[in-house]
Design a protein that fits this description.
The complex is a heterodimer of chains A (85) and B (895). Chain A is an all-alpha fold and 85 residues long. Chain A is built from 2 helices and no strands. In chain A, helix 1 (9-33) runs antiparallel to helix 2. The longest helix of chain A has 25 residues, at 9-33. Chain B folds into 4 domains: 4-27 and 36-359 and 367-409, Sodium/glucose cotransporter, CATH 1.20.1730; 542-646, no CATH class; 673-734, Helix Hairpins, CATH 1.10.287.130; 743-885, 2-Layer Sandwich (Heat Shock Protein 90). A 5-stranded mixed beta sheet of chain B has the order 4-6-7-9-8, covered by helices on one side. In chain B, strands 1-2 form a two-stranded antiparallel sheet. A two-stranded antiparallel ribbon of chain B has the order 3-5. In chain B, helix 3 crosses helix 14 (293-303), helix 4 crosses helix 11 (241-257) and helix 12 (259-267) packs across helix 16. The interface between A and B is large, with 46 and 53 residues.
Chain lengths: 85, 895
Amino acid sequence: MKSSVFLERRAYHRRRMRDLARAVPVFGGVLICIPLLWPQGEGGVTNANAIVYVFGVWVVLIALAALISRAVQSDEPPVVPTDES
Amino acid sequence: MVSFNILVAVALAYVAVLFAVAFYAERRAAMGFGRWLHSPIVYTLSLSIYCTAWTFYGAVGYAARSGMEFVTIYLGPTLVMVGWWWILRRLVRIGRSQRITSIADLISSRFGKSTSLGVIVTLIAVVAATPYIALQLQSVTLSFAVFAQAGGKPWGHEELNGAAIVVAMGLATFTVFFGTRNLDANERHHGIVMAIAVEAVVKLLALLAVGIFVVWGIAGGPTEILQQIDASPISKWQQDGSRWIGLIFVSGAAFICLPRMFQVLVVENVDERHLNIAGWAFPTYMLLMSLFVVPIAVVGLAVMPAGSNPDLFVLTVPLSQGRDGLAMVSFLGGFSSATSMVIVSTIALATMVSNHIVVPIWLSSRTGQGAKVSGDVRYVILLSRRLSVAAVLALGFLYYRVSGGGTALAAIGLVSFSGAVQVFPALIGGIFWRGATRIGAAMGLIVGFTVWAWTLFLPSFGDGAIITEAAMLHGPFGIAWLRPDALFGITGMDPLVHGVMWSMTLNSLVFFMGSVFSFPTPLERLQGAQFVNVFDYSAGSPRWRSSVAGAEDLLIMAQRILGGNEAQALFQREAKSQGKAGYLPDVTSDFIERLERELAGSVGAATAHAMIGQLTEGSSVSVEDLIAVADEAAQILEYSNKLEAKSAEQDRTARALRDANEKLTALSVQKDAFLSQISHELRTPMTSIRSFSEILRDGEMTAKQQGHYAGIIHDETLRLTRLLDDLLDLSVLANGQVTLRDQSGNLRDLLDRAVDIASGNDDGLRILRDRSGEDFVLNTDLDRLGQVFINLITNARKYCDAKTPQLRIKFSRVSGQHVVDFIDNGTGIQIGNQLMIFEKFSRIADQSKAGGAGLGLAICREIMQRLGGQITYLPGQGGAAFRVVLPNVETLSNQ
């Protein structure tokens, strides 16, 4: 019997979801550093806008993490501790 | 105005509620109803100890001073949490598979279970946490002072110090009570986790309440508050990029490395899947905590008189508006933030101090007796933990006194964070890079710690307090490039960024170079492979060669640390999985490794390894073993390991067969011996009966002689009858033809009777009992059970070879069964014979002493089987010990 070189569709999809899970903090890190490019001081961005931006990014990150967390349920069984009394 | 006394009363009532919650959770967990304690929500809430009084009070102060920068402290952990797939998942898996008890334990375990690394990490953690604990004490006392002032009696130094002492002692009591109550094999504390989950809710609600009041109650709505921010002194986005990035890094790394965070993230984690939820739920928590920080700061700056401490706006703003109830809620929120952090922090530090410093010293101070000495050491470990809790809190208090409690909260917090982060390179290197070595890690930690202490920690005591002003300005001894705020002559950096940058850079560099140019020991390489490839090798590989250690020695040692019942249960389970009966499994390398992990859960990896090492006489891993499992071709060998696992089942069967065979062989030998013995036993009385009856038949003797001879004949027939009775009894029992009577009575009376009958007038054997504890109602055939007891006591009298023989009779409850242990102080029974003693016809030691046919224990076993109980030999008790498991009848209430 010849086994396929490729993963079946669902397992493949799960792997890509994990890649996505890994990418979220990188993506978040970039977004969070964007304010450093803003003009500062007089005539620059106000803190009121900065608050809206930062909390907006925060909400997006949380939402992304929540969505992905469903998709990446680990398929390997969790380690069973040896104290099964 | 809230009177100060009401405030104290509310605080005390709140503490009482926390005690009750912790108590209730422990009770439920002990009764096995702890399911809800293990929910992802409780896990997420327990992570909230990240948000301490620093968040609750300090964040607003931080925002009032530097605008949006405060948010970096929560953005770092947010990135770590949403990226849980990278680091946290790995840490939690390692923590569970290696039974990690603290961050020091993780580092020590990864680098070859090194004791010295454990000590270094523990010291760093204690030094870095001390300012932070001081900070919590400071914030609680300051908040008390606010109310005292509002009540018209401003506090001086005296009162502040007094309050700090009371708070520190109260926290020590709570922590000792719930944190060091028992030595849990998994180092989990249900009561405390539940209490901090409650505190998490309280502090969140409190801060939200103040925020909502400020936005809608004072400012008039979200749009208005944004306008007010625009009009405030902190309206402009002015952010130093190096601080922004540096702080996000420091807070993210500290989130993993802080001992208390490691404790709740990894050690208290009961299910890996909780990370899934916490990965987004905890960032949400932090977002809610930070949401109203800037509004409160802005409104505080507007409504409070100039010069008031912005660190206390959360309290003073509601007070100034006459909202006493809200101020009270806010006070409880701050109180919760401070207490939960201190409690978990002290537990984590106390575990580290006791496992990595006190216990190793205690163990090495009694080499010679070593790990084999019997007696419980758990009390030593618990005591050392309790003392460590007190010591850690005392240190915090001392720092509070020395630093004068004057510095802004945020500044102290950041110094502490950057200290904890020194573990980060070794941690990340340890779990991702197999080449990391112990020497590299130790050098990196020491260099990083030194640079941190020089650039951040020592200057934090204030100008000229420890480092002289001359040294600050011109460097120590005039060496300009060593100036604490301008290492290598690079000036103009923010002091914090400067300290973090240099300490982390040098730390990582030295760690890397040290690792590259040193050679790891075999155990390090093995642990390295297990940590880095934790998702591939959860099973682990053998690391203890040949079994020099005896199973009984191991049991004795395990009993000292895990406690008698747990250790016996563990050994029994292991023996069972090998297909053996009794308490002593074969000492395979697998078994030793499992045992070591079990012990590591209580005393840390390094100590557990050292203790096992003492017993196995250091036959740890050799380079050959290592090549077999951990070289670069390990993946291929792993496959063969899997095949090996498949043949484990066959191994078990083979072992069982081998045991059975040994038993049969021994039995047949004994059976032959018994046959000759029984013929001898039958023949001796028969001979005398025959000769004396011949004499009687021939007559011609006095009546006195006649009586004497008849008496002898009578005695001999009695002996014969007894022997035959025994044989009959046994065969009846064995064939199941016996009818059991249904009686009920008290265990104490039964034992009293058995002791009376068995000892008679003979007072050579001292019997130790706890008669008051034996009040237990039995429903079984009491005569038969009594027969078993009598037999065991008689045996002890006959065979116990101590100078002053003693027999301890102990009634107890072990894993749901009632047992009576009979333990004497003789030499006990050798392992080889332990299997045999319950067999028919078996008799060990010299035959003459026995005076019976070796049927006693065989009869006992048959009786116990018929009654639905069990009798077993209990090894490792310092003498011959038998355990009678009473028949499991429904227990009537104790009379």
